[in-house]
Amino acid sequence: MSIGVAIGVIAVRRVSEAKASLSQAGINRAVDSAAGVVQGFAEALREGMGQREGELRAALGLDTPENITETLRSMRR
């Protein structure tokens, strides 16, 4: 009988935890967490893209003052 009571208590606790995670506050926490992960990924991606663009521009010789001036002129046209 005590084993049955213990299993019942554990089951009630698990159901209560599941209900709490499905409540509005639980859903908000999950969405906030997911948004934070996505934002962190996007920031890391932008940083990597900027770094790679710098490497490519340096490798192609596009960062010389003459090229920068010409690029700015062509953008104004």
TrEMBL record:
State the superkingdom.
Bacteria
Q: Under which name does UniProt file this protein?
A: Secreted protein
